[in-house]
Amino acid sequence: MPGLLREAWSTVVPDLNDRHGPLPPLMLALTVVTGLVDAVSYLELGRVFVANMTGNVVFSGFAIAGAPGFSLAASLVALAAFAVGALLGGLIVHRTLTHRGRMLLYALLVETACVLAALIVTAVSGHPFTGGVRFALVALLGLGLGLQNAASRALAVPDLTTTVLTLTITGILSDSRFAGGGGSRAGRRVLSAAAMMLGAVAGAAAVLHGHPRLPLLLAVAVLVCVTVAAIGPARSGAPWTAPVVRK
């Protein structure tokens, strides 16, 4: 097995004696969810992201400047929903701060409910998703992804933020041996980018081939699987469940 793949595999396979235990593969699965829901939001809800808030700030600027095809209202709704989700995630984080397994499980339960609610909205509404349906979907998905982002930040698994790849991709190159660095964690970083790409490709392919609800169905399926997988870790007393001390 090539060195990069071997390194990537070693960073993802669960090891309860590791300081992050089973968290890495679960966080990678959530990264796939990010790609799926952002594919729906951008392609179906009108050039808006529900996980990438940097994009929404830029899109808001475009809309204010009068660029066609961008909705200031949609971007602001996404930003507001994400902020509320982050606040809710913060409440969960600070109430489960001593146990990262429970922190992940409780955050997953709420996020799954949000994405499932969005899927139900698409099932009972017509297509295309416009008007109030559009804003309801942006709000529900933004809420869920804001919560996911808050939880992943508190879980603090290196290079697995689940929603933001800018620093991850920067780290792959700036820390590489070509740049004079140690090249550490390149495998995990590559897998993080690949996971989001996988979700985006699957989501976009479904939308473009006339199945706009399928990405949300897949996202719910992944979230349910991750939630079930998180039940055991939530009951664990292993060392990895202790909070990460930020330096």
Shape: globular
Estimated share of beta-strand residues: under 5%
Low-confidence stretches: 1-6, 11-17
Number of helices: 9
Q: Write down the secondary-structure element order.
A: HHHHHHHHH
The structure class reads mainly alpha
The CA-CA distance between the termini, in Å, is 35 Å
Specify Rg, calculated over alpha carbons: 18 Å
Mean pLDDT: 89
The main pleated sheet reads as:
none
Strand element count: 0
Percent of residues in helices: over 70%
Summarize the structure.
The chain is mainly alpha-helical and 247 residues long. It has helices spanning 3-12, 23-44, 53-65, 72-95, 100-124, 131-155, 166-174, 186-208, 214-235.
Task: Write a structural description.
With 247 residues, the chain is an all-alpha fold. Helices cover 70% and strands 0% of the residues. It is built from 9 helices and no strands. It has helices at 3-12, 23-44, 53-65, 72-95, 100-124, 131-155, 166-174, 186-208, 214-235. Helix 7 packs across helix 8. It is globular. Mean pLDDT is 89; it is low at 1-6 and 11-17.
Which keywords apply here?
single chain, 247 residues, mainly alpha, disordered N terminus
What is the topological layout?
Blueprint: H1 3-12, H2 23-44, H3 53-65, H4 72-95, H5 100-124, H6 131-155, H7 166-174, H8 186-208, H9 214-235
Helix pairs in contact: 1-8, 2-6, 2-8, 2-9, 3-4, 4-6, 5-6, 5-9, 7-8
